[in-house]
Amino acid sequence: MRDLRARRRTAALEAAVLTISLLTGSLLAGGAVTAGPAAAAPAAVRDVQALPDAAQAKKELRDLERSLGVRIGAYAIDTATGRTIGYRSGERFALASTFKAMAAAAVLHKARTSEPGLMDKVVKWTAAELKPNSPITEKHVKDGLTVAQLCHAAITRSDNTAANMLLKQLGGPAGLTRYFRTLKDPISRLDRWETELNDWSPKEKRDTTTPAAIARDLRLVTAGDALPAKDRERLNGWLVANTTGDARIRAGLPASWIVGDKTGTGGTYGTANDIAVAWPKKGAAPVIMAVYTNGRTAGAAAQDKALADTATILARGLGRL
Asked: A Gene Ontology MF term for this entry (predicted)?
């Protein structure tokens, strides 16, 4: 009986979280996504087990794990219907570079609420502060970049030094954790800077999230009301312009879909992640996906396949394919 009451409380809580008003997106010239008319309020969230294809999706994901030698955690939200589907969605995984999307959202929030002009502020760094995989910032040690340019570099090229400079605007990793808490996310946390945060093991709680938690966060900042419309448009534009995710969630969805994403890769335990907001067609309510994996012996091709195939399974499980 206690279990039944707990399930009902959990379902009620998820329904409350997922009845946030949404704004739909459309693709502009230059790759930016802008908000359209407000979408209708989504239906109450359905238990994943009640979805017709949920049992099949679970089986397919379990088989995919076994065949590729990876651990998969996934969560998807159909903002048009309120349906969700997940697999290991409450287990912790390393954030890796997926945190960069949320760091950009946090900076946009700060610029809007407490530091006007922040996005145009020029930030500089020293050669000693450069981190590996910094393809944009390594070219601008002398002149620096604006905070907006740092957001673009951190998301579209996964530039590690740019990400650290964004964290500095937030008060360090703890500042991003505080932003997670403002989104009513008690789980996601960032504890270290790039590139130390990639030093993760499955027993580690530092620098982790769960697929369900980060998917809900991503929904709030890309399709919900956590950011004003102009800031959502800017963030979505950066995500759509990302250059690192073609073999991951994007590869598992139809080519006609508009997909914005942020990847994460690295670590001894073979972390490979992707979080995405995907519009099945122009003006449609998006589907939010978070797919996290780790596999110590899996190669890059297997990791990419796990992410792409999981995206396909999730979309099919939601009835979108």
From this structure: beta-lactamase activity
> What distance in Å separates the CA atoms of residue 101 and residue 87, rounded to the nearest whole number?
22
| Spatial contact of 179 and 106, defined as CB atoms under 8 Å apart | yes
Return the number of other C-beta atoms located less than 10 Å from residue 17's C-beta: 15
pLDDT digits (tens, 9 = 90+) for 221-255: 999 999 999 999 999 999 999 999 999 999 999 99
Contacts of 313 (CB under 8 A, 6+ apart): 57, 60, 61, 64
DSSP secondary structure letter of residue 212: H
pTM of the full predicted structure? Answer: 0.85
* Residue 274 CB-density burial (10 A; 0-12 exposed, 13-18 middle, 19+ buried): buried
Domain 52-318 in this protein, CATH class:
alpha beta
Cβ partners under 8 Å of residue 181, min gap 6: none
CA–CA gap between residue 230 and residue 251 (Å, rounded): 28
Sign for the CA dihedral angle at 230, 258, 314, 158 comes to negative
Residues recognised as catalytic: 97, 194
Give CA–CA dist 109/117, Å, rounded. 12
Residues of the chain with pLDDT under 50: 1-50
Alpha-carbon dihedral sign for residues 15, 18, 23, 29: negative
| DSSP single-letter state for residue 135 | T
Tell me how far apart the alpha carbons of residues 195 and 99 are, in angstroms, rounded to a whole number: 12
Closest of 75, 168, 159, 73 to residue 118, by C-alpha = 168
DSSP-assigned beta bridge partners for residue 38:
23
pLDDT 10s digits, 58-72 = 999 999 999 999 999
User: Distance (Å, rounded) from C-alpha 311 to C-alpha 126?
Assistant: 40
**CA-angle at 192, arms to 305 and 232, nearest 5°:** 65
Contact 260, 250 (CB under 8 A): no
